[in-house]
Amino acid sequence: MRSSNPVFSRRGFSRDNGAYAGFGTQQQPQAGTTTNPYATNPYATDPATGMPQAPVRGNAMTIDDVVSRTAMTLGTVVLTAVISWIALPVDPANINKSYGIAIGAALIAFVFAMIQSFKSKPVPALILAYAAFEGVFLGVISSAVSTYIGPGTVVQAVTGTMCVFAGVLIAYKMRWINVTRRFYGFVMAAAMGFMLLMVVNLLFSLFGGGDGLGFRSGGLGIIFGIVGILLGACFLALDFKQVEDGVTYGAPREESWLAAFGLTMTLVWIYMEMLRLISILKGD
Fold it and tell me: What does the DSSP assignment read for the chain?
């Protein structure tokens, strides 16, 4: 089974009984068996007993590794967002230039993300470069929203994103969310439908003018904003599951960069949907 997140689409951590497998393309385990994709890794542990399968050399991925790498990646996003907010004004005289730079930065960030997603190993420089250019884009967009809609909008969007993250994490730790193959399939189907509708709406807005089919304004905009946030929450659950499996199966420490990359992408998604939803609710 592949992840919803492109950075997780080339490797996997299987679960016993075949209920779930993310991160890759390894053969699915048969019912009643346990397959560890890192069984030949000297850092791997047996998920049934929790005991090392081979002498551990202290280079297995841990939760602390994921937290520290995620903090570095998100910190880069925040830092460049603040710099671009200050350096790229969105007043009437400069808004076109600032928007142009922001769109260029978003395209570069997308290219870096795609390059990393197709690499067999994480490249920290690529991941941090993605974070830097994504931050430039978010900084300009956030500045524009704060200027033309309301200064409290960005704070509300950030707060909402943090609340979604905390809520999903608590629900996942309490096992209120059970990430199974069916859950994965439902999320992926919903995500593909959502993205298809957004692409169609964008095409109509580009060639027909206005807001296209109206999926990003008014009542429909509110509904789709809520759906986008819920999808982001589901992506978070998949990310948490894959991080948990990586730690359980003794993934190499470098895999923590991929986990940080995926979590950052998901949080950016949630923030953008939250920002859009609040803007619509404020009537603009």
Answer: ---SSGGGTT--EE-GGGS-EESS-PPPPPTT----TTTTSTT-B-TTT--BSS---S-B--HHHHHHHHHHHHHHHHHHHHHHHHHS--STTTHHHHHHHHHHHHHHHHHHHHHHHTSSS--HHHHHHHHHHHHHHHHHHHHHHHHHT-THHHHHHHHHHHHHHHHHHHHHHTT-S---HHHHHHHHHHHHHHHHHHHHHHHHHHHH-TTTTSTTSHHHHHHHHHHHHHHHHHHHHHHHHHHHHHHHTT-BTTHHHHHHHHHHHHHHHHHHHHHHHHHHHTT-
Strands (DSSP E) contained in the chain are 13-14, 21-22
Convert the pLDDT of each residue in 104-127 to its tens digit.
Answer: 999 999 999 999 988 888 999 999
Beta bridge partners of 252: 60
What's the pTM? 0.80
